[in-house]
Structures are given as structure tokens and as C-alpha cells.
Design goal:
The chain is an alpha/beta fold. It is 36% helix and 26% strand. It has a single domain, classed as FAD/NAD(P)-binding domain (3-Layer(bba) Sandwich), CATH 3.50.50.60. The chain contains 13 helices and 18 strands.
Length: 395
């Protein structure tokens, strides 16, 4: 079977690896002209790492991952430690240690593993046509390619998502999550946080955090609640952070001071999409952000895309009635689970960003002296329903 995948991101390349391992002829097209992922790094929780283990790249991913052994919350203004606890229970309960990884490193690994000779960049798909026997994609330059199946891993503004929706279905629109995220990579600095800790400073609905990734680096991010569309010029560098976090703790000032905007500083308005039920039509289906554009508040966006790749691979390895039938089964495996994670992330974002100030104040108070049991319960709760666990849940 020939498969066209639209999109060479985490979801598209992992799905490509899974389908190639089953013996299918897979080609990937992406409109980007070079590997420049959006966002500096990502959280690979146990469910995401397990999929990568299944794809045969577990050792390489472990080498890319940071040693995140503990988790700490600090008062953003004073720097006081609110709580500090081990993340070992996550590994013990799920059977896999989580790793934060630099997104470009993981992307490069997946592209190499899939086979860069079959990834064609600078190719924008503008139309999809399914005649019942094959699917043809048309590119912006007028060229076409035809395959037995098309998978749209073409991101939050997906063309494929619009194609698979039923006639008369409500328009699917992205919704602003209420905050802007600044992120990047810096050298590890103990003035900010322990080298093996996920450290988060919180106050006033804002967050400043670091996670360790390979190479002696911290992945950092800041959340700034504000309206969408606030102007920003890259020449401003860290000025918006200096303003938003003025008077915050010395660790936060050290973090801002360590940022070199010319090397690593991204600014991303955070949007999501309310879950919807249709992921497949005929010989065409969607995965990744095209299917479940998710805010990063529970760190499951990339993991959910990897779960899509796992479910798609398992579906094609075990079902033989036909492509259309198998894609419907893939959809049935993923729609409820992925949609639930989108809504959990949205709810978490509302709690952490002071959209309800009383709720956020109560969360801050709950962190003071916490032993981590409740926080770990939430992290594991996002993992235990993963299809990669084959129904075993957690131990």
C-alpha cells in the first residue's frame, strides 16, 4: 500500500515509521523548507516515550532526554520553596521514566529514522480528492501525487481536517487560551533550579519554569496571561518578560538574564480546538494537532500525537477488511481519549492562569508543603488511559 502523509512533524514522522515498519510505501510532504520546529522543547511523559520505544528509537530518545528526577514549585515573588518531591513514583507506576527533550533533536531523530530521502519539504498541499480507489493530493505548484491512503498530520490549521468533516458540520475554529508562552533553551544554572528538577515559579496567574534536557541545558518557558494579538517585534527580545516579571524572585531574574534572544527565544500565543468527532473520511484521516490541537498545560500534546501513530500502526497491523474500515477503527480508538486530554489541558490552564483568581489562589495554597502525591496522581492520570498501555493502566 502506498501512503502519503502530509506533515513532517512529530506525529507525521512517527506515523510514517510505524507504517513503513509494516512494509508500506510511505512518502511525507511538508510545506516547511527546513527542519525548524515551533517551540524549543517538549515533555515526553511515559506514554509518549513508550511509543518511541515501540518505534525502535528508545535508546536514542533516552540519550536526548534530560534527567528530570524531581519537581519543585516556588513562590514567584519570594523564591520560597512551596514543595519539592521525587518524580520516581511516575516511573514506578507507569513503567517508563519521562524525558523532556529538545524538539529539534527529537524531530531530527524521527526524520532520520523514517528516511530523509522520502521526506519532501517545500511542498504545500492545496487540495485532496478521493475517488474511492485512490487519493490524489495537489500541490501549490500544480503537481500531484496519488496513493492508496492519505494521512493529514498538517497541524493546527489543517487542510485535511476540513476535508474529512461531514457535509454541514459546524466550522471548526481555534480558540485562544488566554495567554502567551515564551520559551527557549539556556545552559543549566543552579541559581534558577536544580539541574535534575522541573522547577516552576508561580504568582499572579503567571509561570516561569525550567526542565533539564540533554547537553547541560534547561528548557525554559514563561506564561503571560494577556489578550491575543499583542504586538511583538523580535527586536524587543526579553523586554516583555522583564516587564511582566519585574520584582520576581532572583531565580527568575537569573533565568531572564540567561536568555540570548538571538540564539533561542520563541513567542507563541496559545490556542486550542474544542474536540470534534470526525477524524476520517474514506481513505483520508488526520492525526496530531490536526485532530486535537491542545494547549500545553498538561504536557500531553506531543504524547497524544505519538499515541495517534501507535493506534494507526496497530490498526493497520491487525485489521484487514479495508482501508476505510481500518481508518474508522483508528478514529474510534482515538477520538474520546484525545478529546479528553484537550479538555483537561484547558481546565488546567484556567486554574493556573488566574482566570478565576480564587481558584488559582487556592491552587497556590495547596502547593505549600505538598508531598507531591496529588500532583503525581494528576500526571499519572493523564498517562494511564493511553492505548500504548494495552488496557493495563498503571501499577
Amino acid at each position: 500500500m502506498k501512503v502519503i502523509i502530509i506533515g513532517a512533524g512529530i506525529g507525521g514522522t512517527s506515523a510514517g515509521i510505524a507504517l513503513r515498519r509494516l512494509g508500506h510505501d510511505v512518502v511525507i510532504y511538508d510545506q516547511m523548507r527546513e527542519n525548524k520546529p515551533v517551540g524549543a522543547a517538549l515533555s515526553l511523559w511515559s506514554n509518549g516515550v513508550k511509543v518511541l520505544n515501540w518505534l525502535g528509537v528508545g535508546d536514542e530518545v533516552a540519550a536526548l532526554g534530560g534527567d528530570m528526577a524531581t519537581m519543585a514549585y516556588r513562590d514567584g515573588r519570594t523564591g520560597e520553596i512551596l514543595c519539592d518531591f521525587s518524580l520516581e513514583p511516575v516511573t514506578a507506576q507507569t513503567g517508563q521514566k519521562p524525558y523532556p527533550v529538545a524538539r529539534a533533536d527529537l524531530q531530527a531523530l524521527l526524520m532520520r529514522t523514517f528516511g530523509e530521502e522520502a521526506i519532501h519539504l517545500g511542498r504545500k498541499v492545496v487540495a485532496i480528492a478521493d475517488d474511492g480507489a485512490s487519493v490524489t493530493v495537489t500541490f501549490a505548484d500544480g503537481a500531484t501525487d496519488t496513493a492508496d491512503m492519505v494521512i493529514g498530520a498538517d497541524g493546527a490549521r489543517s487542510l485535511t481536517r476540513a476535508y474529512v468533516q461531514p457535509e454541514g458540520a459546524p466550522e471548526i475554529v481555534r480558540e485562544y487560551s488566554g495567554y502567551t508562552n515564551f520559551n527557549g533553551l539556556i545552559p543549566v544554572d543552579t541559581a534558577i533550579g536544580a539541574p535534575d528538577a522541573w522547577t516552576t515559579y508561580v504568582a499572579g496567574g503567571k509561570r516561569a519554569a525550567v526542565m533539564p534536557v540533554a547537553g547541560g541545558r534547561f528548557y525554559f518557558w514563561f506564561d503571560v496571561p494577556q489578550p491575543d494579538g499583542v504586538p511583538y517585534d523580535r527586536a524587543e527580545g526579553t523586554a516583555p518578560l522583564e516587564e511582566a516579571f519585574a520584582g520576581w524572585a532572583p531565580g527568575v531574574q537569573a533565568l531572564i538574564g540567561a536568555i540570548d534572544p538571538a540564539v533561542s527565544l520563541n513567542r507563541v500565543e496559545i490556542w486550542d480546538i474544542t474536540p470534534f468527532p470526525t477524524w476520517a473520511k474514506g481513505r483520508v484521516a488526520i492525526l496530531g494537532d490536526a485532530a486535537h490541537n491542545t494547549a500545553p498545560d498538561i504536557g500531553q500534546g506531543a504524547c497524544s500525537a505519538l499515541e495517534d501513530a501507535f493506534a494507526l500502526g496497530i490498526a493497520f497491523a491487525t485489521n484487514t477488511v479495508g482501508i476505510e474500515d481500518t481508518l474508522r477503527r483508528y478514529e474510534a480508538i482515538r477520538v474520546e481519549r484525545a478529546g479528553e486530554l484537550v479538555l483537561r489541558a484547558r481546565k488546567r490552564g484556567e486554574e493556573t492562569h488566574a482566570y478565576d483568581p480564587a481558584a488559582t489562589a487556592a491552587w497556590y495554597e495547596s502547593l505549600r508543603g505538598a508531598d507531591g502525591v496529588g500532583i503525581i496522581r494528576g500526571i499519572v492520570g493523564n498517562i494511564e488511559g493511553s492505548p500504548v498501555n494495552l488496557g493495563a493502566g498503571v501499577l
